[in-house]
Design goal:
0% strand; 78% helix
Length: 101
């Protein structure tokens, strides 16, 4: 089979799809909230790990200004990422509560 016949077969198969026969996912509010909480827990754990590692780097920098700046930036970036995750958590919770009522 050449590439053109494969493409024609794919297009023919896709033409059979109508909105009525698409799979309908079933996700209720509890499932969506549990997925959201799982993702937020992973993000929080990663932020905590980065803050701890950056703290060790700061302590072990021995006064080197470049190492100190990199460690301080690591803490700042982790905190900014955590703040963004918390704001996005609030937005997702708001959308789930509005849509899945």
């Amino acid at each position: 089979m050449d590439n053109m016949s494969v493409l024609v077969k794919i297009v023919a198969d896709l033409s059979q799809i109508t909105p009525g026969n698409l799979p309908q996912p079933t996700a209720d509010k509890a499932h969506l909230l549990s997925i959201k909480n799982f993702v937020l827990n992973i993000i929080g754990a990663m932020a905590l790990l980065i803050i701890v590692i950056s703290g060790f780097r700061y302590v072990l920098s021995a006064g080197d200004t470049q190492k100190t700046a990199r460690a301080r930036n690591g803490v700042i970036y982790a905190l900014v990422g955590l703040a963004i995750a918390i704001v996005s958590d609030a937005i997702v919770t708001l959308v789930i509560n509005k849509v899945a009522t």
